[in-house]
Amino acid sequence: MLKVVGASWYKTKIGSLIVLTAIILSLGALFIIDMERPTFDGTFCATVYWTKMSGYRVEFWGQQNDLASVPLGVARICYKDTIFENGWSQIEIETNHAYPDRIQATGAGILEGALTWKSIYHQWTNTINAHCSKDDDAVDFCAWVRKTLLKSYESVRKQAELNADHDHYWYQIQLFYYQLEGLEFGWRKGIKRSALKRSRLEIPPEDFLLMNAGADLRDLRIYYDRVIMGRPSPANNDVRSSMLLNIHEENGIIKLQMGHSAAKSYSLMLRIVKKYKFNYHFSRDHKSHVIPGSNIIFSGYPGVLASTDDFYKISGRHGHLIVAGVGIVNRNSELWHQLDLRMNVILSARAMAANRLAYNGRSWSRINGKRSWNGGKAVAHI
Questions:
Q1: Residues 238-268: pLDDT tens digits?
Q2: What transmembrane ranges does the database entry give (predicted)?
């Protein structure tokens, strides 16, 4: 009899505990439901880390609302794709000044490539791949321009390596190419972690360089037609941009207004507003000063590390600078025959070097004018 009573009491105790647990879980569920949940707007963020032992490692944080809330590491990025909402995407990248500039540049490139891999592939498909398979002449031109750019790239990289320690310009050129190499590495990493990792998506390595030479392709096409093929070039009339400056006084205050437009084909409608906050130094010496133009905002395209629209808003230790440019036409055929393409630096690299090093408009023009194809841009600075 005692055994039966004891068993009933034990079962009753277990049953009471189960009921109590259920009540606590129900109250907890109600509390969680009433909690304010964070809302996200489709902004995805990531951080890249680096050590001498393991190299680079990317941590993807999913959706976040603010770059400042993301761990810094070597560099951090937030990316939001709103192409179908307003025609633009947004990228913001910040690097950590505590790391060597080479690590910052490569890390920034890795992050951009990893998060925007799909847009980069679409950009390449719509532009380089589509144009270079259009007809036999396009195939021949693209083969020539790839070969030309690779030779120039190899020469420029050697020149930058030789001069980076004592020439600030060449040091920034070197960092641009580190970032470009990181971009390609990050793009391939983005493919591997995606649902399409087993697909055959591929961009030839040299086409990352070709995309970043987009601002030079018109001049290279003219050179190819006139010098290599000995024929007139329709690209000589292909200038589709404009700029307007207006200085006026309002209530005793002098104001300056600027308007800038750059017309592109429909294949170039994958637009991105990019904000780079790169804490580079003047040289490899980590004790040297941080560059004047550490913050750069520009309109650009996937996979391109500069604005082929030629519009930048720059800020840093020495104030603000706005840079805008439009294409100009060189109708002197003799000048095309004097060009040496082996040691010329692409406009994207020169422009970003000038953006980062310039204190004012005059110094920007002087820096950007080094090692150009033909100087085919008219530039205004504010």
A1: 656 777 778 888 888 888 787 777 666 666 7
A2: 14-33
pTM (two decimals): 0.85
Q: How far apart are CA 161 and CA 251, in angstroms?
A: 53
Distance CA 274, CA 1 (A): 82
Q: Which 3 state secondary structure label does DSSP give 256?
A: strand
Q: Is 10 helix (H, G, I), strand (E, B) or coil?
A: helix
Enumerate domains of the chain plus CATH numbers. Answer: 43-381 (3.60.60.30)
Provide the sign of the torsion angle of the four alpha carbons 62, 67, 69, 74, taken in this order: positive
pLDDT tens, 115-163? 999 999 999 999 999 999 999 999 999 999 999 999 999 999 999 999 9
Sheet holding 377-381, edge to edge: 55-63, 43-51, 75-82, 88-95, 271-277, 295-300, 311-316, 319-327, 377-381
CA gap 87, 106 in Å, rounded: 28
d(C-alpha 344, C-alpha 337), whole Å: 15
Parallel, antiparallel or unpaired: strands 88-95 and 75-82: antiparallel
